[in-house]
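By way of example, what follows is a protein record of this kind.
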Amino acid sequence: MILVSSCLAGLKVRYNSTHSLNNEIAKLVEENKAMTICPELLGGFSTPREPAEIIGGDGEDVLDGKAKVIEKSGRDVTDLYIKGAYATLNKAKEINAFVVVLKENSPSCGSSMIYNGEFIGRKLEGMGVTSALLKRNGLKVISEEQFAEAFL
């Protein structure tokens, strides 16, 4: 089974109540070859929600207690991101996911790029909190771009 970010399957769960539909991923969900998940909703957020970025590093640093996830208004939401990451890990193990396809650039799901924490649209290399936790636990995590290259 493949685990995929809900927004990639067309569900309007992103912070601004939009989706990032990837037709091939949505087709896999329809064919019961993939299951959707949103780490941020599992962490306790609702939709819409305030945008958040990692400040002081990336998801690895958040897990190590060296960085935080902060909303644009300044509220520290690190604990909710960590909670969602662990819930996602548990679901991935439960369904024996062989690959997890997560939305690039997200503070949860980014697998190689995230926003830099300044809320100015600038990105840097790094992983989101969920991607970092999944990779630490031996799961293969890829972005929607890598999915297109590998599976299409």
Summary: The radius of gyration is 14 Å.
